Each structure stands twice: as structure tokens, then as C-alpha cells.
Amino acid sequence: MSSEELRTSFSDLVVSSPTRTEGQTNSSGDSSSEGGLQVTCFTEDLHDVTLHFQIVRFSKQIYVWVGCNTAKFGHLYAAATTRPDNRVSVTSVLGGTSDNTGSGMARRLVLKTGLNIVLACNIPKDSPMLEAAAERKLVEKLKGLGYMAIDFPGGKVSFVAEMNFLPESHGERISCYRVLDDDGRTISGSRFQEVSKEVALKMYSEMVTLQIMDNIFYEAQRQGRISFYLTSNGEEAINIASAAALSIDDIVLPQYREPGVLLWRGFTLQEFANQCFGNSMDYGKGRQMPIHYGSNRLNYFTVSSPIATQLPHAVGAAYSLKMDKKDACAITYFGDGGTSEGDFHAALNFAAVMDAPVIFFCRNNGWAISTPTTEQFRSDGVVIRGQAYGIRGIRVDGNDALAVYSAVHAAREMAIAEGRPILVEALTYRVGHHSTSDDSTKYRPVDEIEHWRTARDPISRYRKWVQGNDWWSDAEESELRSRVRKELLQAIQVAERMSKPPIAELFTDVYDQIPSNLREQERLLRETIMKHPADYPTDVPV
């Protein structure tokens, strides 16, 4: 509320002469309610001076008038506790300075009552005893009216006489931020972060690259050339647009459906292929399943299979950036199913309490493998949960690259500048199966999948916008797809021919000096392989 609005509000609520009842109040101190207002007027003779008091409660705001001259408001102050240390902030709304009589009284009333107060005080500055007596009388009256907040160990609260249970929801669903319609046209009146032609074209080319990479690796798994794969089909905008809004200094803690973030940061197709084939050039030395990428160089933590374990880690990473006063944040990705894990709730509470600059990015694609969100939670999606932990949030169309880019860009600025966590919920749809171990047609209608694959494809939508700006042509499209496919097939051939990490690597990188029990395990493994060579891969050096 602005100073002018506050001043007008006070003028509307406070009776110009506290002794004039107008059917609402009387000078004996009785209270009455009308139109949502609770008004109390009384007079007191203090130190041979008649003081007039008026207390008006409207919604959660307390308006107080106290003075010896009923014809003047005196100075007007707004006082309230402020985040995060509960100190009292006093604003001079009408006349006066911060060291005036009313300013000190406003501050003390907030400290003693726990209420947010707008105070008009008309007591002479040279009458400290009169001011103190008036203050005591106000505290006594506020307590008697039941307005005072009590500072319980669990929180500061005020009281009401009615027994009211909170509703299970806010009623209206939280709206979803969008910039482009399904035909790639900017929605009239939409506000979004401007993106240069260079960045816009890189975003598009990387979205196409991710799509081609997913399709070819998926086919490679079906051919038996790699053991497992998991696509990002339908979620390319989430991957690339969110990554484009970040800095390379920001720390990424992914789930397993964010390879596009790593692609944007500079992970090459050859590096992707090396990991999926688990060869000797794989940074994880073949110990992880395919798609469990990681890169220290690119500030991208290695994917962890257990759901949501990365969320508390992200809070710790963000807090370390804050301690080091780095101009960076952490971001962690997870799906709607991950919000059912305890780590989700622990991480949000931890981040809020510690004011950690971390972005929680939820890909709400409607399915946790085969469990729909209707069986996952009763709340209005995920973003609403941030309020319970004191975290700001936004819901965004995850198939709209410009909306995702703008939302994450703004979230990053807030997280760093204000030192706070932000929750982003991107609504999208997983067009592909959960993984190569899943057949989603067993629990989703085929026509539903096809609708999202065609009518709601994020790449097609974004391409229309890029072409609408005369930044892209059909010839460039054909060249891009041909080149990426050729580069990826070559990378796969190289990765496939490369040797596997030797057996000895199974026992390294845990202890500086390998203990005797691990040496014994290594000896037994080698003996077993020698006895049963047909049961073990022939391309793994023994």
C-alpha cells in the first residue's frame, strides 16, 4: 500500500472527532461492528489532560488515533515487523520525521502487541509522561479487545472469537504464464524477457539436436547396442530454454530428463555417446547407467537415480554460493512424482529458512511413470506448495520456450539479488515412454499421446515464432537436421569401438589405498571370470 493510499484509508476509517459516535461508538469505550469495521472510542483523563482514543480494526490492520486535539490528525505513521529479523519498520506517511513522538510510540506498540499499526498521534512532544500513559492505556485496551498477538514459541498470532477452519484450497486454480500461443504467435499484452537473434537460434538448434539425439539413442537401445535410455520428447523447451536463462557459474543438480541443459552448456555429442556406451572415455568409468551424465567442468552434478535426492544437495550448493558471495545460484530439476518424496519437503523448508539462492524447477508432465497426478496429490499442482514454506513461485507453460526462458531468467535474478529460493512449476507432457523399460500405451490413450506430439509440440511452436521473425528458413532446417544426425551417428561409431574400462576400475576411486577386503574381492572376481568367460562381456579388459 502506498503512502497516499494509506493516508486516504486512514481518513476514511477514523471518525474525525472520537467523541462523536454516529451510531457506531460511544465515549464510554464500548465497541461496535459495521461493514467489516470494529470501532472503539473512549476518553481518559491522564496527567490532568483529557486524551481521546479511537481504535479501528479493519481486516488485519489496526488504525489508532490518540491525542488531545480532536480537530487534528497529527502525524501519521505506519509500523510493522519486517522480514527476516522481526525488527520494526516505521514509515512516516503524513508529516513528521522518524524521531517524532508518534514514531516512537508506533514502534513500541508493535513490539508490545505484535500488531501492524497505523498511528495518528497528536500529543505534545514535550510531554513524555503523558505519552507513556497513553501508550499503556492503548496496550491495555488492545489486550482487552482481544486484538493483541501473542508471541508463542511456534509463531506470533492474534486471536479471533470465531472457530474457522482453513479451506482445502484457494478456490480458483493458479494461472499459468504463457507468451506464445499454439501457433507460435505472441499473445497480445504478453510480457517476456527479450532474446537476441543469436540466442534465439541457438535455443532452436539445440532443441532440434536434443530431439534427434533422443530418437537415435532410443533406437540404439532397441537394437541392443546400449542397455538403457530415457528421452525428453515433448520437454525440449523446458531443457533448453531454462538452460539459456542461466549462467555457466550457476550449479545444476538435475534429475534424469535434463540432458538438454548439459547440451546447452557445451557437453559434446561424443561425450554423450561415451557415457551411454560406458567406454574408457566415459567420465564415470562405465559405472553408471546410460543417461546418468555429469560434468565438473560445466557445473553439472552427476544424475542420481533415486528420486529427489538432489534437492537437499541443491540447497547446500546454493548456500555455499551465498557464503562465498558469488553472483550465482543453484538450480535443481525434478518431476511431479518427486514432490511425493520427503526430500522435496525437507529441501524447500531448508532453503526457505536459510534463504538459499536456489531455483526449484518442477517438470509437471502429469505422470510419475504410470501414476497420474490425480493419484499423486490433491493440491493445485506443485507451485502452491511453495507458499506453505514461505517460497515465491510461478506456474509456466513448459511447452512455451519464451515463457520458460523469461520465468527462469526472472527467478534467477530474484534468487541472487534477494537471496531467496524460488519454485517454478512447468506444465508439460511426456510424449515418450518413461524409459526403454516402459510402455506408456498401457496406461495412456494413444490418441492423447499423438495429440501432444503434434498439436502441442514445443519445437514446432517455437520454430513458427523464429520463422515469423525471418530468422529461419526451410533450407536451414534441412541442413541442421542432416548435420546433427550425421555427427551423432559418427559419435556413436567412435564410442562403440572404444574399449571398456578395465575390471580394476571397479575397485578404485573410493579409498586412497585399496584395503585388503577389496583386493580379495577383485581376486575372486578375476577367478570367476576365468572359470566362466562365456558369462561375462569379452570387451572388458581383465
From TrEMBL:
Subcellular location: Mitochondrion matrix
Keyword Ligase: no
Catalytic activity: N(6)-[(R)-lipoyl]-L-lysyl-[protein] + 3-methyl-2-oxobutanoate + H(+) = N(6)-[(R)-S(8)-2-methylpropanoyldihydrolipoyl]-L-lysyl-[protein] + CO2
Comp. bias intervals (Polar residues): 8-35
One Pfam family per UniProt: PAC4
Superkingdom of the source species: Eukaryota
Record-listed E.C. numbers: 1.2.4.4
Enzyme class: oxidoreductase
Chief location of this protein within or outside the cell: mitochondrion
Entry GO CC: mitochondrial matrix
Cofactor: thiamine diphosphate
Region (Disordered), start-end ranges: 1-35
Ranges of residues in domain Dehydrogenase E1 component: 206-502
Any single GO BP term: branched-chain amino acid catabolic process
Molecular function per GO: branched-chain 2-oxo acid dehydrogenase activity; metal ion binding
Gene3D superfamilies: 3.40.50.970
Family stated for the protein in its record: Belongs to the BCKDHA family.
Subunit structure: Heterotetramer of alpha and beta chains.
The protein's name: 3-methyl-2-oxobutanoate dehydrogenase (2-methylpropanoyl-transferring)
Species annotation: Panicum miliaceum
